[in-house]
Amino acid sequence: MLHYSVTVIRTNKFREMENQEPTPTQPNQRLGSPSQELPSTSSNEQTQKRNRPESPQRKSDDSAQSPKRSRNGSLPPQSFPQEIIFEILLNLPVQSLLRFRCVSKPWKSLIADNFFIKKHLKRAQNDPEFSKKRVLINTSSIQTGSSIKSCSLKSIFEDPNVNTTEIEYPSKKASRYDWIVGSCNGLICIAIREDTVLLLNPTLRVSKRLPDLGFKKRRGCYTVYGFGFDASGDDYKVVRVFCYQSKGFEDGYESIVRVYSMRTNCWRRIQDFPFGVPFSEAGKHVDGTLNWAVLSRQYRDFSCTIVSLDLAQETYKEVTQPCYGNGAGERILGVLDGCLCVLCSYGRLYAEVWVMKEYGKRESWTKLVTIPYTPIPGYEMFLTPLSVSKSGEILLRFEVNMLLYNPEKNMFRIPMFPYDAFSYIDQQEVYEESLVSPTVVNQHR
């Protein structure tokens, strides 16, 4: 950075010198040539000039004209406009920004500013190169137990071998299985044995343990989660849905819903699910809502419904689904480029991926791709779409691994991770690196 600024300034200086009129000389003479006559001076005059003390005025003029050099001989850095510094820092990864907080107090203040944090997050979310996006991978191994790692999303699409980094967080134990609830604006929500919930920024290495709920689960009860952001209230919220069978299977299921607000730092109960109970998948966060595929009972039959919870109003509504073809089976929700998507499976034939381009508008449902059935062992069941590259290649989550599908070439390929033969992948979640802290509120004002 320093060499760049000096080079620009010196180049401009040379351009000024080139544009200046040359000093007039006598005809047929060149500056510095041996034939050029120089004014003669006597030896006494030269001695007097050397011994004559230099005036203070001349010293100050020389010091003003000649910039002081540092110990290594380089010129001092030139100051950039604040707008340029702001724009340069916006494009840097979080790890670099954390180091640059030590450069100066103004830089530290700028990087911690809420407006800068918001702009940096927006830049990361809209980056088509995926340079600031990563994938959380929850793995289980017979030998080493459970662990959560992360890798670059870009490397999955571009590199044949993917390197992973271990995610560190409080209360981590290899012998225990922790569940990734979801991600939002660089924050990760992790459920630990369904008793403890943790908010974590893995890049900042800052975490917050949520207060205990103090709720005794009934026998046969299972828990479904959701994590998202309420933009109108500038508040992150965690939703826990306790599902249990009411009396008998014919009577269906009931639910109790609790919501945690980061702004108030407490749990409270809200209206129960109006359309049955959600599946075991966590709610998908899109535009300030959490969305679940729900098993509902209508007309003595069970059907799949998409239920949305508005995090601002804390009210439910049913999301209209696309027009599937005959034989449509299981439906699994996902998020692609910030849009709600549905993977609809047609047995062991093929699966369709539908994307809702404008949330809440039925006419915006668009069929993105039809994926043929693959007989690869361990990849028989389609699960959640995770991401789409610029070239149209789709990253899919399967039961034990991930799979890339190229619609143009109609080809599958498996990204290689550094795991042993006894390891398998339970969960994957895409997130972007950010400066958002789980312990600070009002970061988006």
TrEMBL record:
Residues 74-120 form the F-box domain. Residues 20-46, 63-78 have a biased composition (Polar residues). Residues 13-78 are annotated as: Disordered. SUPFAM superfamilies: F-box domain. Residues 47-62 have a biased composition (Basic and acidic residues). Gene3D superfamilies: 1.20.1280.50. It comes from the Eukaryota. It holds the Pfam family FBA_1. InterPro entries: F-box-assoc_dom_typ1, F-box-assoc_interact_dom, F-box-like_dom_sf, F-box_dom, SCF_F-box_component. PANTHER family: BNACNNG10540D PROTEIN (PTHR31672), F-BOX PROTEIN CPR30-LIKE (PTHR31672:SF13). This is F-box domain-containing protein. The lineage of its organism: Eukaryota, Viridiplantae, Streptophyta, Embryophyta, Tracheophyta.
